[in-house]
Structures are given as structure tokens and as C-alpha cells.
Amino acid sequence: MTSLRVGFAGMTHLGINSAAATAARGFSVLGFDNDADRIARLSRHDLPLEEPDLAEYFAAHAERLDFTADAARLAECDIVYISTDVPTDDSGHSDLTPISALIETVSRHIRDDAFIVVLCQVPPGFTRALRSVPHDRLIYQVETLIFGRAVERAMYPERFIVGLADPAKGLPAPYRTLLEAFGCPILPMRYESAELAKISINFCLVASISVANTLAELSEAIGADWSEIAPSLKLDKRIGPHSYLTPGLGISGGNLERDLRTVIEIGSRHGTDTGIVSAWMKNSAHRKDWLWRILSDKVLAKKPDARIGVLGLAYKENTNSTKNSPSLLLLSHLGERKGLRVYDPVVPASIVPHAHAATDPLDCAAGCDVLVLATPWPQFKQLRLADLRAAMAGRVLIDPYRLFDGRPAAQEGFEWHGLGVGNA
Known about the structure:
Elements: E1 5-9, H1 13-24, E2 28-32, H2 36-43, H3 54-60, E3 65-68, E4 79-82, H4 97-109, E5 115-118, H5 126-129, E6 138-141, H6 150-155, E7 160-164, H7 173-180, E8 186-190, H8 191-222, H9 226-234, H10 255-270, H11 275-288, H12 290-300, E9 308-311, H13 326-334, E10 341-343, E11 356-357, H14 361-365, E12 370-373, H15 378-381, H16 385-391, E13 396-398, H17 406-411, E14 415-417
Parallel strand pairs: 1-2, 1-4, 2-3, 4-5, 5-6, 7-8, 9-10, 9-12, 10-11, 12-13, 13-14
Antiparallel strand pairs: 6-7
Helix pairs in contact: 1-3, 8-10, 8-11, 10-11
């Protein structure tokens, strides 16, 4: 085990998962947060978030994980990451005040030979504008957080994108030792390039999502099946086998929308054209309402008092985050209607106080005319169509992520609706 001690300041989603992965790579880790109750929970391995394998990593590497609410202990560390989540509002704007305050706190307590690494996402220009830390000890590193895959991404990064005040000087030796332990390419560049690289990655992702969503909707209209088309794109060398070509319900979670909003604002200041970015945001808003459009057109137009079950409240599987959740948008349209039932494996149903809080998926389906599978939780895919048929009063499945195959569903007597597939 290396003698380096690595600190993570900010024990939210990003910091907790990054700390666990760093401990798993053999480093002594100190997690700091001003929230003493959160630190107490982490110290007894009572995790405040949902991520696959996170509890197992905590248990396996407990001897290298330590937590504190005392900022003075950061002086023990050779490197301290600023690792708190950056919240966004409903308009995609971020409040960077807590990030700046945390950097100030850390800078007052670390040693003169220690390094601060800003891991949380910040807009271009933020890092170089910092004055509380000498730039030769200040680094920006692009985070790779994906909710539901956070441990995997932190443990096995594809590459490290690193922003430095002067890339020609190279990486500081302790920091290079830390990164090399993860066995992936390291790409040093100036601060501004690294900050913009994160946005660039998200833009390519948004472009792929927008292609898939636009053409999946067209597939529904003309009787095509997008799942048959996507493999042909992945075999094109100009696009590639790892392209994100799965249609979904818009852009959720907050981070992608924040980057789109950031570029629109920067473009407005500098007179650059960002019309395509506005179009992506418009397309995302349109796709988020797919559930409501299908439910309205296919069910409520015929039976306004239909009893509805909604499986899933999180914005995607394997997370307890509901930021910009399409499920909650659908529920806002439905309002306080009678016969509404909801269930999610980790998100408490109490966030929809007017709905019946089901105890499991079949309880959610009980007596319903239509069942909406709004979040692609793996356990929902294990449901048997025969059990759903026995539980439900009606026979409509709205299944955007295609957890079920449409043909067997039809054979079981269901009217099935999935993203990207039309009626031939």
C-alpha cells in the first residue's frame, strides 16, 4: 500500500464513490464533510445513497477509509479532492458558492506541500480564477460520475482528463502516483481545456441521445423498430460500437442540461451560434412528455377514469435521484386522481403523497387498467407477464425502455407501447 494519504472534501455522491474507489486502489483515504451527522453515518457504513456495489467496497476496504467533520485533519493529506456534488436548479443553473466556500476551507487547513484537485464540475474559467490556492498546487480533474454506475466508473475510469495551470510542467509526482494506480491514459491540458472537455463529452452524448430519440419517434410513426436500426449504426466505423443510441425520455439528472445551459450563456456573451443546443433542449422537453402523450392518447382518451400504476420514481435505475425524473413529470400531469398507485425500490413513495404507496411491483399493478414502467429497474424486467395479467384489471403496458418484448406481451393479451417501435 502506498504511503500517500488522499482526502475527499464533500461527502456527497461524487465524493463517497470516489473515496471508496481510491481506497480500493490501495490508498489511505480521509473523507471530510461539514455535516457531522453525515460523517457519523459514513463512519458506521450507513450509506446515504444508492449505488450498486458501494456497500461491498466500504466493507472490503474499511481499514483504509476514515471520515471526519474536523477540517484541521485535512493537514494529514498529501492530496485533497474537492468532491462535493454541484446542484442544479430546474433551469439548469448551478450555484457554485458552496464549491468556492469549500475550497476556501480546505486551503486554510492543508499543508504547504499538499495539492488541491477540483473534481466537481465547474464552468470554463472557474479554476484559473481561484486565488485562495497557488496555481502550482491547484489541479482540475474531470469527473466521470454516472448515477447507478458510480463505483464502476470511479474504479475503472476510461481516462483521466487533467487541467493544469501550465501543462508543460507536467503532473506533480504524488498526483501522478495516484492516477497511475488506476491504469488508464492520462491527458494533461490547460485548465480551460479540461473544463470544456467535460462539456464536450456531454455534448457528444446529448447528440447521440437526440439522434436516437428523434428517429425512434419517427420509427413509432411509420411502423419501423429502432432496436433493429441501432446495430447498423454501431457497425459503421464513423459512429462506432459504443455509441449511445438507446432512445429515452429526454435528458434527465441535471448535469447534461446544466452543460447545455452553460454553453448557451457563454455563446450569448461571445456572439457564437448555439442554435443546435437550444434545439437539443427543446427535443429533450418533448421527449420527457412521451409517457403523458401515450397515456393520454391510448388510454385516457377512451377511459378518463382509468386506474393507473406507475413503476419507478427515480430518473433512472440504480439510483435514488429523482432530478428531472420523467416519472415525476407524468405524475404532475396526473395530479390527485383516484386509483393512482406508485412503487420504486429505493425512492420513498411518500414524495407522491396523494398516491397509494405500493409494497412491491405486483401490488402496484393490482386492479390497474394501465401499468407504466417509468424507470428501467432490473427487478422490473424479472416480472412475469402472466403475474401482471392476473393482478391487473386492464391490459395496457406503457414500457418506454422495453423491459418486455412486445410480441410475448401481445400474446398475453396486453396492449404494449415501447419507445422506438411502431405498429407495422
